[in-house]
From TrEMBL:
One Pfam family, short name: Trypsin_2
Swiss-Prot/TrEMBL keywords: Hydrolase, Membrane, Protease, Transmembrane, Transmembrane helix
One of the GO biological process terms: proteolysis
Name the record gives this protein: PDZ/DHR/GLGF domain protein
Domain PDZ: 328-411
Transmembrane residue ranges: 45-66
Amino acid sequence: MRFFSKRLLKRGYDNYEKFMNFNSAYRRDGKYDDRSRDGRRVYRTVALVLVCCILTSLMVGGGLYMKLSNDIKELTMLSANQAKADTVIGNRAVNLESALKLASDSGSSVTNIAKKVGPSIVGIRMLTQSPRSWYFDDEMAQSKAEGSGIVITADGYIMTNYHVVQYADPKNSRSKNTTLEVFLADKRQAKAKFIGGDPKNDLAVIKIDMDNLTAAELGDSATLEVGELAVAIGNPLGLEFQGSVTAGVISALNRTVSVDDKTLNLIQTDAAINPGNSGGALVNSRGQVVGINTVKISVSGVEGLGFAIPINDAKPIVDQLMMFGYVKGRPFIGISGREITDAIARQYDLPVGIYILEVTPDSGAAKAGIQKGDILVSIAGKDVRTMKEVDNIKKNYKAGDSVDVTVVRNGSKVKLSLTFSEER
């Protein structure tokens, strides 16, 4: 037992000696030991590698966790959006199914509606010849626009949107180089004449020299109800898809929509309406035209927002366009001008207002003494800064009414009396 203890003590002492010699820069004999320093370097290197590995693992793991979290969020959002889309599509399907059932119960169907109204819907092509240049060939010098129209009389009167035929308006500088072509549902075609247009309400009338045409039956848009069947007939994306029929419901009534600085009161529908449908018919379950398709909201992720001009609003204007070529009684000033903004006014030391570029002969402005180069600053006691403000004031009057206007001429204010003439 004693012998065993001595051996243990000796072995422990020897191990202690080895440990001390390895972890000390100096041996017991006082000499410097390089192996001891190398050992510490090894330990430090190993420790540094281990720390780097741990940090790298944490960073990679954190990145993977963040990516996984983002993927989960994205999947959740996609699922939610899909659910919303499914709900919208489901609601539209339910609404359309209900409308179709009501129409079927009343003896109508989309097929019968299309057969009744289809022959009255035409395609319209507006061709405008631009001045040729040596740089462009003949094909590029000619622009083409296509839309839809509705035959309203058997002798060839057709109503449509003004923007579909605007370059054919004699008031437009391009009218001399513009021609209109009409394509009927029975494949016949004819040249058309511009009869009259109303840019403010986006309505126009053209005419072809043909008889015995099928005129559309006009309905009463005042009797429309939200949820009832609505059928759109026209030429989406042009004549290639002439006579396309889409069905939906009346989504809302009396929608106020601003289009190109015009504010229109419109019918909203989810029946598919696309470029080329403009000027076509929105039809009720009895096959009567209750609206003129005019605009669609085209925003990514938005569907089923089409709008039509109510036929009750359009018909009085269309009647006047057929009779006179313009809307009678509408006040007309007779000026064209450029708006002087605050910045321009400061730069050129001018008053804010409308710089008169042109005065129409025999107009109210001409008879009042307004001259080219004048700056219009007020009408009926109200300051004007833009042409839109001028139009808003003008709406409160009719042809024959008189108002005071103020212009700045050569730096001095001049008050004049203006009598509105009739817009033609």
